[in-house]
């Protein structure tokens, strides 16, 4: 298997990289992967991960819910309940931050299509991109969406979208800096970029360490904090306008982690940790399990 070894930090270019954690792929293979941290800027990433052409098999499991839409088990039932609630919140957030009730929206890594379908019902013109063929087919059959393969992103028209969203997608993308450049090109000058990613400086990440389910190796390549997200945006011509906690993520991630640890009563244990994480994020939102970041293009004069 071909693996990609990172020799220079994608954020700052530093070459002093230190092994930070050793994590296990609990979903698909049981393989071990190492996380490295840049000693100069602190950015954390998965080292020696499978290249894009070969990583597909790590998603090929019915338990990977964003592609399979499975409802099997308590944890996946909880996921569906929370997602139904969050879809409305996400839609309202997008419209509030974009200062518009309708517009042209691009959802990258759309999975089975729930979010663009929600925005379409609210009157938006939507385009969606997804790598997984099965997920594209689900979106077409259930929502009537014509979801494009990932390869069509490069051919999209410059400055053609009022809003671009990536909901728990950026951590999966091999070509990280190239993706930021593409987002800047596709977004209108007054457009809004909305990115949600796990937060490896969260309460639950600190509690569980290498067992934290949101490390999700090797599917998650990059592990962001509020600081590193702001710095990536700045590097590519964006200003971080706002950031919001996603407190419900701590419950789901903690339940998954407890199950991976083979603890008894993983649902109840995860519920307890999720509650503690929720209180922690009330005191300091930067400790939320996942964060939503709202970026705007930096003015040429700024």
Write the topology of this structure:
Layout: E1 3-4, E2 17-24, E3 32-38, E4 44-47, E5 49-50, H1 65-68, H2 74-98, E6 104-108, H3 114-121, E7 125-129, H4 133-143, E8 161-167, H5 176-186, E9 187-198, H6 203-208, E10 222-223, H7 226-235, E11 238-245, H8 248-260, H9 266-283, E12 290-297
Parallel strand pairs: 6-7, 6-8, 8-9
Antiparallel strand pairs: 1-5, 2-3, 3-4, 4-10, 9-12, 11-12
Helix pairs in contact: 2-3, 2-8, 8-9
Written overview of the protein:
This protein is α/β, with parallel strands linked by helices and 302 residues long. Helix content is 35%, strand content 23%. The chain has 9 helices and 12 strands. It has a 6-stranded mixed beta sheet with strand order 7-6-8-9-12-11, with helices on both faces. A 4-stranded antiparallel beta sheet has the order 2-3-4-10, with no helix packed on it. It has a two-stranded antiparallel sheet with strand order 1-5. Helix 2 packs across helix 3 (114-121) and helix 2 runs antiparallel to helix 8. The longest helix is centred in the N-terminal third of the chain and has 25 residues, at 74-98. The chain is globular and about 45 Å long.
| Mean pLDDT, all residues | 92
The tally of beta strands, per DSSP, is: 12
Distance between the termini: 45 Å
Helicity level: 25-40%
Q: Estimate the global geometry from the Cα principal axes.
A: globular
- In quaternary terms, these chains amount to single chain
Sheet-strand content, in percent, reads: 15-25%
Helical run tally:
9
Helix/strand-derived class?
Answer: alpha/beta
What can be said about the biggest beta sheet? 6 strands, mixed
Radius of gyration: 18 Å
Read across the widest sheet, the strand sequence of neighbours is 7-6-8-9-12-11
Low-confidence stretches: none
What is the ordering of alpha helices and beta strands? EEEEEHHEHEHEHEHEHEHHE
